[in-house]
Write a structure and sequence with these properties.
single chain; 226 residues; alpha+beta; Immunoglobulin-like; 2 domains; five-stranded mixed sheet; three-stranded antiparallel sheet; 36% helix
Length: 226
């Protein structure tokens, strides 16, 4: 399903061109069938003309149906699908906006772990002007709902998402994301009110249209009690 959706999205122009040619042939065949029917005199001729006309109408209907299907896919369905459903690794939903509550299992796992402080308050993997988190800064103490600021602008941009993990852990939890380049450096909100206070890592992941994930920008932060 993933490969099919990507094919229709990336080759929409070619598909429309092929369908336009098919539409011309179907219309020409339909016109020819009407002429044959008008000129037929004998019963066998009229039967053949009717058959030709029915085939032309069927062909025309199929081409129109295919064109409408392609239009629905490329203009109305694919642009609003979460990015993870178009890629081959559906392990997260980058476009799911955080609702302010975390799954009980995650809260339990976070509460059972003892937060470990980061050794140094430095970012890693960030590319100035392309993949950056500009706020919060490395080592910042944050609480409540925080507006994440940064840059997610790479060649052949597809989407971005940001997520967090306990310091020293590789268990990342997706917060939110989008499939459009952020305006005014606003990546989105992060509600930390239900997260156990402690030391965490926040990372920004950007993916291109070929499903290639660039190295993420990671910064350490500290979450305090609201």
């Amino acid at each position: 399903m993933t490969t099919i959706l990507r094919f229709f999205a990336n080759n929409a122009l070619l598909i429309y061109l092929v369908l336009a040619i098919g539409l011309l042939f179907a219309a020409r065949s339909l016109l020819k069938g009407r002429v044959e029917l008008g000129q037929s005199v004998f019963g066998l001729e009229r039967e053949l003309a009717y058959r030709h006309l029915r085939q032309s109408v069927t062909m025309l209907a199929i081409v129109i149906l295919l064109a409408l299907s392609e239009l629905l896919l490329t203009a109305f369905l694919i642009p609003y699908l979460p990015a993870f459903s178009i890629l081959s690794t559906p392990t997260f939903n980058p476009l799911t906006t955080q609702t302010g509550t975390l799954p009980p299992q995650l809260l339990a796992s976070l509460g059972a772990l003892t937060p470990q402080p980061t050794a140094t308050a430095r970012s890693s993997g960030c590319i100035p002007g392309q993949i950056m988190i500009t706020y919060p800064k490395p080592g910042d103490v944050i609480k409540g709902t925080v507006e994440i600021l940064g840059v997610a602008d790479i060649p052949n941009f597809a989407y971005y998402y940001y997520e967090f993990s306990l310091a020293g852990s590789d268990n990342w939890q997706t917060v939110a994301g989008d499939n459009s380049i952020p305006k005014d450096t606003k990546l989105g909100p992060w509600d930390t009110s239900l997260i156990t206070p402690g030391f965490y890592n926040l990372r920004l992941v950007v993916t291109d249209s070929q499903a290639n994930k660039l190295p993420p920008c990671i910064i350490p932060v500290q979450i305090s009690a609201p």
